[in-house]
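Is 5'-deoxyadenosine placement plausible here? Inputs below.
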Amino acid sequence: MNKLDTALVGSALKEAGFSLTGSEKEADVVLINTCSVREHAEQRVLSHLGHLKHIKKTRPDMVVGVIGCMAQRLGDKLLEHKAVNIVCGPAQIPQITELITEALQQKKKTLAVTENIRKTAEEQNETLEEFESAYGIEDEQIPGQAFVRVMRGCDNFCAYCIVPYVRGPAVCRPPEAIIEQIKKLPGQGVKQVTLLGQTVNSYKFKSGERTYCLADLLDMASGIEGIEWVKFVTSYPSEEFFDEILQVMADSPKVCNYLHLPAQSGSDKILRAMNRHYSSRWYLELLAGARAVVPDIAIAGDFIVGFPGESEDDFQATVDLVKKARYKNAFIFKYSPRPGTRLWRAGGELQDDVAPEVKQKRNIELLAVQEKVSDELNRAFLGKEVKILVEGLSKKPHLNAADKADNPQLVGRTATDYIVVFNGPPSLAGQFAKATIKRTSPLTLFGKLT
Ligand code: 5AD
Ligand code: SF4
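Reply from A.M.:
I modeled the complex. Tokens:
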């Protein structure tokens, strides 16, 4: 979601005549796009702002803007920071060029956030929709790929989560606007499109007589010539449209057999406290149902460890779920109390009762359990040929790194989101390639181009 906002802002600024630089030292304007999901992410922004304050001592004209969820959450408190000139929430990014121009000319501090985020005005949605449809969405970091938001915001109110309060209510974008945007992508070299939403599987849009669901979008997107792979993230474990989505996955070779379906916990007590509307047993049945329709489906999960009240038994229930779910990979987070969430308002800061060492220990234990599963799943690829969409040079060369300059180590992903590392010409970035898997680790498949 944030990467997409960064790309949209980047396109808008380029169109307004700004040019992008990778170096803070050269920049007249520095924008920081922020996430509020965990406290750690916000702390990193604050320390970066400290660094910018220092730079501004010698370059007082430099304009610093904070955009995104942290801007919406902290508003004027953030504007008080010495380094900050602009605070701009996710719903105000259409105004960003205006805000920057003002800041450059008038040297004043400006705040643009939504007053009552759970009651966003129709008008605001229209402005966001226009902005979103107008700008390019190809990912400049990863050639050949693009992200398209299909819904904004969230109405789920999981007890720990800040998203409904910084991104506002769930609003689905019109299918025509989404499809129009996707149609433009192949002309820019895009081969894979990822549809984005906080609970993307519950996408629903009524247009005339017809109600469109995510399966319809997947079907329409995969009908577009030049789009070869269609992915979607993130799903919420619910029955709504689940069968339709799996069916289109099974039927369409372009809809990737990959599902990101966070469980968050394996303990029913904790799931209830989290305000997640399912039990661990029901969740596992949902996975079994998905595998029955799409046998090679790769499933990824998210978990929070150390949620308030999580006992050792609760945690072991999560371990048990991870063993049974057989995820391709799982993202594991330590619970971080967020001001304004349901739990916080119910005294959650005080209730953050799992000690940091215990959170750490559970995090490590759960990672180890998942690593074993990932390792087994990865080994099954040995000797097999896979199709990869190549992303570019591998950031962490592991194998034959010293190979010739025209044959460096590249990285890409399969349709089911497995990471593959192999040697090949850099010109393959953004293209499809095939490789035979020669070696595996829990996180990576190592291949040889075929
Ligand atoms: N603390 C820790 N992890 C969180 N997540 C969301 N809110 C919190 C929080 N307060 C995790 C969830 C979600 C992922 C994006 O971040 O696992 O799926
Ligand atoms: Fe947060 Fe829950 Fe919405 Fe996901 S579904 S964004 S965890 S409130």
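Short version: The longest helix spans residues 356-379.
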